[in-house]
Amino acid sequence: MNTQWEAVIGLEIHTQLATKSKIFSGASTTYGAEPNTQACIISLGMPGVLPVLNEDAVRKAVTFGMAINAEIAPYSVFARKNYFYPDLPKGYQISQFELPIVGKGFLDIDVDGETKRIGVTRAHLEEDAGKSLHENFHGLSGIDLNRAGTPLLEIVSEPDMRTAKEAVAYMRKLHELVRYLEICDGNMQEGSFRCDANVSVRPKGQAEFGTRAEIKNINSFKFVEKAINHEIERQIELIENGGTVVQETRLYDSVKDETRSMRSKEEANDYRYFPDPDLLPVFISDELKSEIKAHLPELPEEKKLRFKTDYHLNDESATILTSSRDVANYFEEVVKLSHCESTICANWITGELSAALNRADLDISDSPIDATRFAGLVARIADDTISGKIGKQVFEFLWNTADSADDIIEKQGLKQITDTGAIEAIIDTILVANEKQAQQYRDGNEKMFGFFVGQVMKAMQGKGNPAEINKILKIKLS
Ligand code: ADP
Ligand code: MG
Q1: Residue nearest ligand 1's atom 17 by CA
Q2: Which atom of ligand 1 is nearest to 158's Cα?
Q3: Ligand 1 mutation pick, 107, 126, 156, 273, max ligand atoms within 8 A of CB
Q4: What pLDDT score was predicted for residue 35?
Q5: How many domains does the chain have?
Q6: pLDDT of 30-70, one tens digit each?
Q7: For residue 267, what pLDDT is reported?
Q8: C-alpha separations of 175 from 126, 153, 200, 253, 374 in Å
Q9: Residues 126, 93 contacting (CB under 8 angstroms)
């Protein structure tokens, strides 16, 4: 970015709460059903129906508030936000306006080795709208109202971020947190976690904010970063060419990698918010708060600290191994079952296993190697039954078969050879076959030692114990 300018970014993140039924009705929230089979009359606001608040949505919102150290409103109110759009046939969305359920809180992010605190202004409950479908309708649009009424928690940040990188770090942190709390499944392809980014620029050193544009509905970390960077560049160029930024809503086009104007402030709706007459205010008692607090799980930050002290992990491993509850649980299982040093377990999970899962695009919960079988592998490496190199071969078999590590080592004859007699015999043969190189070593060419180690390992198909090979070679070559 141009060094005379500074960007200011605030995010509004919509998280679908993982409740079984909708926020004001008993209709199912399951994703992927036949269009319009879950569009109940309450979600559609048919005449004569009455919404009833889903208690689980309230609990999940309060859980979130507590995890970000926010004020929980003892009294909050639902309001109607009036606007017309084809995916909202009832003409208003039930949301919260003046009295949201979650007030000011914060989240700490790490960027380039530094910790920065990002303020959360508020988080409010609301219902999701339906979805327009533009494919397979021959120039027309279809409407699927299954999503209408799915509970959303809209999390609004302070304009505290200064780079796209910070915005992505904040979004990732939130994503990790809502999954830890098990209040949202975090599935971004299915739209369970989506982001609107507010972006403005100002000359460095200026206190007032510039005029912001809001980029709507970004559903991947990669696109958030690209869309924000693109928007920053656009605004700087515009101002430097004598123009002014207008407050507007823009859409990010990921194919063209650009943002496009959707509507300006003048065309913006006046939502005519008013308290929803069909819904009672929400009271949160101290009892409910203490009950929810008592059930808060260990949060990512605490877990990371504990992993560092209890398991002697470095920051990088601790970060990877606490990136989700599933990964953390898997690691702790492996440590427990293998009875080995936690750092060996950590290395094999963050190394070999993570790489294989990435390649196969699998979550650890769908890993073809469960914690028990993985522990079997790590245990045999730790007790020197196999070398690390052979460990990678065993890993491949574990991945592709249902056998245990012990069975694989046995069947494939992969056990490390520590029998000094056997190693000596092989070394003798190799020394005879490579007399010239042996002389070179004795004449002071120390690099030849590696050559011999390689030859012996090759002859033993990688199964020789490296420490023994080194020891015997040293003696025979001296
Ligand atoms: P609205 O509901 O109209 O979008 P809000 O006041 O709720 O307006 O702000 C929405 C988001 O915009 C918040 O995340 C806030 O931090 C951010 N924001 C406000 N002013 C600016 C600005 N000048 N530049 C960048 N972001 C801003
Ligand atoms: Mg907004």
Answers
A1: 10
A2: 16
A3: 156
A4: 94
A5: 3
A6: 999 999 999 999 999 999 999 999 999 999 999 999 999 99
A7: 66
A8: 19, 13, 24, 23, 28
A9: yes
253 and 331 housed in the same domain: no
How far is the centre of ligand 2, averaged over its atoms, from the C-alpha of 196 (Å)? 7
372 C-alpha to center of ligand 2: Å? 48
In terms of domains, do 320 and 231 share one?
no
Both 367 and 455 in a single domain? no
* Distance between Cα 10 and ligand 1 center (Å): 6
- Whether the per-residue pLDDT at 266 is higher than 70: the answer is no
Compute the distance from residue 198 Cα to the ligand 2 centre, in Å: 8
Are 196 and 217 in contact by the 8 Å Cβ rule? The answer is: yes
Q: Are 452 and 441 in contact (CB under 8 A)?
A: yes
Q: Which residues of 423-454 are buried (b: 16+ CB within 10 A; e: fewer)?
A: beebbeebbeebeebbeebeeeeeebeebbee
- Which residues have C-beta atoms less than 6 Å from ligand 1? 8-12, 156-159, 198-200, 209, 212, 214
How confident is the model over 195-200, as a mean pLDDT?
97
Asked which of 380, 412, 444 is the last residue of a domain, the reply is: 412
From ligand 2's centre to the CA of 12, what distance in Å?
Answer: 7
Report d(CA 128, CA 152) in Å as an integer.
Answer: 6
* Strand duo 75-76 + 282-283: pairing: antiparallel
Residue reference for tokens 């114990």: 465
Amino acid at 445: N
Name the residue at shortest CA distance from atom 19 of ligand 1: 159
- Digit-coded pLDDT (tens) for 123-135: 999 999 999 988 8
Query: Which domain range does residue 342 map to?
Result: 298-412
User: Do residues 183 and 36 both lie within one domain?
Assistant: yes
Q: Where are the alpha helices (DSSP H) in 153-220?
A: 164-180
298 contacts 330 by C-beta, under 8 angstroms: no
Co-location of 226 and 357 in the same domain = no
- Give the ligand at the shortest distance from the Cα of 199: 1
pTM for the structure as a whole = 0.85
Q: Which residues pair with 12 in a beta bridge?
A: 156, 196
* Three-class secondary structure of residue 319 per DSSP: helix
Least distant ligand from the CA of 12:
1
